[in-house]
Fold Adenine DNA glycosylase.
Amino acid sequence: MIFPKKLITWYLQNKRSMPWRETTDPYRIWLSEIILQQTRVAQGLPYYLSFIDHYPTVFDLANAKEEEVLKLWQGLGYYSRARNLHTTAKYIANNLEGVFPTTYKDLLQLKGVGDYTASAIASICYNEVVPVVDGNVYRVLSRYFNVDTPINSTQGIKEFKKLAWEMIDPEQPATFNQAIMEFGALQCKPQSPYCIVCPLNDSCEALKKGTVASLPIKLKKLKVKKRYFNYLIFSVKDQQTIIKQRKGKGIWQNLYEFPLIETEKEVGLDYIKDNDVFKSLLNNVDYDIILHETEFKIHKLSHQHLYTRFYIIKTEEPPKINGESNIVGIEKIREYPVPILIGNFIDSFF
DNA sequence: AAGACGGGGTA
DNA sequence: TACCCAGTCTT
């Protein structure tokens, strides 16, 4: 038996049960694929169930407020996925009468749908013969053929796509694509793959050459930037605080947070008190300020470390907010979509 | 071609 | 710690 057949046989015997495997409804497949981008099944599953529960159809999602979508997405990360998800739902509901595109080429035009996701939807929903190449596929192919071209190089992307084209079973693209991904996730794992019991261990080139553990090759590690976040936690009569939506570029776009003073390095109370944002908020307002915890809370993103401190500012009258900030009752703050860093603070403090 | 973009799991 | 996860978009 050859590679695709063995893979499919293995898949039919070992696949996990997942809700999106019970359907070919493009709405549900699309939703699951967006959620699962750079995300483990175990982490994405509850979000998928929640989204299907709140938005059973693409029209329900299209009619939602972005803030509500972001709130449901809270904690999953890569929030542009949620914003693009909403944009695409509105586009399909309003411009395509709720009907998804049915080809790889047309699916690729949707916001948030790249090469992988367009291939996944086209093959799973419409049996189009297009190979998916995700992290699992890179790993399986690089090992099976002992290819050391970096998977994140232009050459590597091209090369592995070509290999995937050569391997895909044109009679059952949907099953093959899911099989190779599931195989990578469960059997040909990044660390400690089960080569001893692998159905492909008699023909795996990397196993033969002893290079399994070092494949696939990936270029460069990004250097992590340090940032210093000083958050101002207002407590007006112990019942209100100030919250603000992040706008523009950068992390956490359109999510909410507390008023923020970002600095180049560690600063103290004196710096905060002399900061213009701080002074404009508290112009002629009596306040009491304390540093919540001496130690930094270090929030680690993949590409930056946020050295975070929270300053508690108690007042008896409302600060002087401008149009960008909102004074909100403490009982309402959990309704806003916030990054995990802020959510954790809210849970520990309020 | 290289960066930006989250948060959590695993060894 | 370091690496990885059913990647995509921007610069």
Remarks:
- DSSP finds 15 helices and eight strands in chain A.
- The mean pLDDT of chain A is 96.
- Residues 38-40, 42-43, 75-81, 153-154, 190-192, 220, 222, 249-253, 299-304, 339-340 of chain A lie near DNA strand B (CB under 10 Å from a C1').
- The domain at 3-214 of chain A is CATH 1.10.340.30 (Endonuclease III; domain 1).
